[in-house]
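Morning run. Coffee first, then this:
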Amino acid sequence: GIYNEGLTLHSILWTKKIQGRYHAISIMEVVFASPYFHSGSETESFNVVVMENFAEESINEEQNKFSSKSKDDGKSTKRRRGYAIDRFPKMKEDEIEKMRILKIERQITENEKIRMAHDEMNKKPIC
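And here it is:
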């Protein structure tokens, strides 16, 4: 959609990192670029918070406690990130609609390719 295809990171103005008890927290001001901003501006700045956990936390259902996998136990740990933005980029309504139509057209084309491959596969005799 418009946010995947029409929004790019222009620059990072500043960052601040904080070590929390369970998360590494990055607070930053970023500048996004887009030809589709409602304001007509080529760039706009936003405050963003990124939280990344130190280790995958899971709930032990038998004891109903939180447990954390250690990095030293030989198992891979999956770090999760959460993002927050101070305000969502407002885009031009007509551009959003154009992107929706484009997405639908792409999906129709992809579905047609799958249908044609399926039809072709069913024409061949099974030995």
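Confidence is low (pLDDT under 50) at residues 57-72. Good start to the day.
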